[in-house]
Structures are given as C-alpha cells and as structure tokens.
Design brief:
alpha/beta, about 15% strand, nine-stranded mixed sheet, about 50% helix, 16 helices, Rossmann fold, single chain, globular
Length: about 400
C-alpha cells in the first residue's frame, strides 16, 4: 500500500459547536487561504452539497509534483444540538446542574483534577459562574432590604439582579452553550440520541463502502473535540461491519484532534465507550493518531486516550502540536485568551509549516500514517516551496507510554 495520495475521502466530525453546513464550508474556505500561503500551494473548494447526514464539498490541492482531489463530508448534527438550544433557561439550568452532579458522582471530576487541573476548572466554570450570579443577586437583595426596610423590595431586586447577571452570562460568556455541551455529554454516556446514533451508523456504512470501492487512496476521519468520541464510534461500527477494514488498497485513518475522549471516558458509566476505544485501539489496520496541545485547556495534554483510561494496552500514536508556533506571534497574542478559538486551531489554517496541519491531513499528498510517522510531521512531507519531499524522513520516536508508530 502506497503512502502517496491522489484521491482522498475525508470525514470531518466536529465537536459540540452549533454550526450550519453553509457556515462550516465558509470557515473551511476562509482558513484554506492561510494553508495556501503557509505551504506555497494552490487549493480551491468546489460547490457545497447538503444531504440529511453530511455537508459535502470537494477540494483540489496542488503543489510542485503532486495533486490531490479530496472529498470532504462534514457530519451534520446541528439539528441534535438545536434540540438542546431550545430549552427554557430554568430547564437548562436544572439539567445542567444534574449533568455536573452526574459527572462528579461518576468519578470524572476526580480524574480531571488528577490528570489536568485546568480541565477540572473548565468543568466547574459554568456552575461556579451561576453560583456567583446567585451571590450577586443575594447581595443586591440584602442591600435593597436594608436600605428600604422592605423585604419584598429586597426579594424583587435580588431576583432582578440574578436574572440580569444570568442573561449577560448567557450571551457574553456562552453559558447556554457550555451547559448544553455537558447536558449532551451526560446523555451520550447514559442514553445516546437515537437520531445521532442512526446517522453514525450510516456514516460507518459509507466508510466501509468507500474503503472497499478502490476509488480512494485514503479514507480519513478527523474528530475534533467531542467529535473525537463520535469518530471513534464510527470507526468501531465500521470495523463491526467489515473486520478487514483498512487491509485493502485503501488506507483507513483516524485523527483525533483536541480530543474530549477522556471527558466522557472517565465517567464510571462510560463502559461502552471504553470498550469501543479498546477495539479501535487494538486494530492493526486502522491508523489512529491523537494530536494534543498544552495551550488548549479543552483537551488532555500528555494523557493517552486509551491506556490513560484503562481501556487497553494499545491505541493511537500521540503527537503534540505547538499551537503558539504555528501562528503569527501577533495573531496568537490576540487570540490566546479566547479559549474556544485556541481550541479551534486544530481545525483551522496555520501561518507556519509545522508537525500538524489540519489542511495538510485533508488536502496533502501523504497519508496520515506517513505524516505522523515523520519526525517533523507534515513539514517533512512537503517542502517550503510546496514540492513533494520524496526522501524518507527521519522517523518519529514516540515518547514512552504515549503511543506507537503506525
């Protein structure tokens, strides 16, 4: 099986980020411009097509000595997220606090604190923010009651202050999105959404069909954030349909980037997920690479997504992404306090050639196995002038305990 790619089918499995198909394609096209500049290549996006399960567009990328046609299928699950987005605020708060309590009882918070204290703070942030708003309301109410001598005035002002602070938090601090994210995470651990599960089944069938068609050199799945969990599920379903998946002429690859796998996997009730991780991690034919970054507080840096959860002895190769160094310094300084934007760099264009580049995985001339197996990753596969590097690069040696070469 060659590691050169002329045709690729790439499935993009996004995290919990409500986004229409049109917005997703627009962001992809916008960020592609940075990819072209950083790698001295040409790349153009074809028209958007939308079906029930995916948004679909094609990309033709070319450099000196290579040309790749990639078909991108972006999983649509904005309709699933819209169900939670329509919750009344009292219901959202009640279900959100129930989700937090469930993850605490399920042992997840204890593991977050042990392995990544910053993620533990990120987990607690929405709850602490609401409690702070409640304290503001109590303080305002007490002050009003003392000044006016009327308890009823204190109650009214306290409730109004809490409501105003909450309204500000919902819009200014993305509080609704944060609560919905955790509500969905609890549901996915306890009782997965049947609409989404059926959709993942159909994508698994597409993976099997594409891998067996001989039409593509590589079938690639990229799961970002919470989408990494869904991407693993798709591969697991595909392996159940076709145990020989990835052993033919078409390579099958899985890249989990900025992954939230431990977010769910540390929950005591997430046994089905840990079993999926064990099965996918044990596959010899599917290349799996997990990309992590220290500056991204929404992923688990230096934690192996299979062995770290006690889900098996094998699993993906882990590679680290220097997000600070892949962006223009001035631009990074502008975004570094925007945690969501830093998190989304895993699926955005780089300003500098580096180990990891989202667009190089989707549009580049080498398979994920070849890119991840090179010491300098993508930078060892395509030169500064956009030409294909044909010499065998120095291999990357995984750090002990964090992965194996594909």
């Amino acid at each position: 099986m060659t590691d050169l790619v002329a045709r690729r089918l790439a499935f993009h499995i996004a995290g919990y980020d409500p986004m229409s198909a049109e917005t997703a394609c627009h962001r992809f096209t916008r960020e592609l411009a940075r990819f072209r500049a950083a790698w001295s290549v040409s790349a153009d996006v074809g028209p958007l097509r939308v079906t029930e399960d995916v948004a679909d567009w094609r990309v033709l990328a070319e450099g000196r000595g290579w040309s790749v046609e990639s078909e991108v299928r972006w999983l649509r699950w904005d309709d699933v997220m819209a169900r939670l987005a329509g919750l009344p605020t009292p219901v959202r708060l009640a279900r959100g606090f129930a989700a937090f309590a469930d993850f605490v009882r399920g042992g997840a918070l204890r593991h977050y604190a042990r392995h990544n204290w910053r993620y533990a703070l990120f987990f607690l942030y929405p709850t602490l923010l609401v409690l702070l708003f409640a304290l503001i309301g109590l303080a305002a109410g007490w002050l009003a009651a003392v000044v006016t001598g009327w308890v009823s005035a204190g109650i009214l002002l306290g409730v109004a202050a809490f409501a105003a602070a909450l309204q500000w938090g919902r819009h200014g601090m993305r509080l609704d999105h944060l609560f919905d994210d955790w509500i969905f995470a609890r549901e996915h651990v306890r009782e997965p959404d049947p609409v989404l599960s059926a959709r993942l089944d159909r994508l698994a069938a597409q993976v099997v069909e594409a891998a067996g068609s001989g039409e593509y050199n590589e079938v690639l799945l990229i799961g970002h954030s919470l989408g990494a969990v869904l991407a693993v599920e798709i591969v697991d379903k595909a392996l159940a349909r076709e145990p020989g998946l990835g052993r033919g002429r078409t390579s099958v690859s899985l890249a989990t980037v900025g992954s939230s796998i431990p977010k769910l996997g540390f929950h005591r009730a997430a046994l089905p997920l840990r079993e999926m991780l064990r099965r996918v991690g044990a596959s010899e034919a599917v290349t799996w690479v997990d990309y992590q970054a220290y500056v991204d507080v929404m992923n688990f840096h230096k934690l192996h997504p299979v062995r770290g959860l006690g889900a098996g002895e094998r699993g993906p190769l882990v590679r680290f992404v220097p997000i600070r160094k892949v962006l223009d310094p001035d631009y990074y300084r502008r975004i570094r306090r925007n945690l969501l934007r830093v998190h989304n760099q895993f699926v955005s264009g780089n300003d500098v050639r580096s180990v990891y580049d989202y667009f190089m995985l989707i549009c580049g001339p080498r398979t994920l196995a070849a890119v991840s197996g090179a010491e300098n990753g993508a930078a060892d596969c395509v030169a500064a002038d956009g030409s294909l590097v044909r010499e065998s690069p120095k291999p990357y040696i995984a750090r002990p305990g964090l992965g194996r070469l594909p």
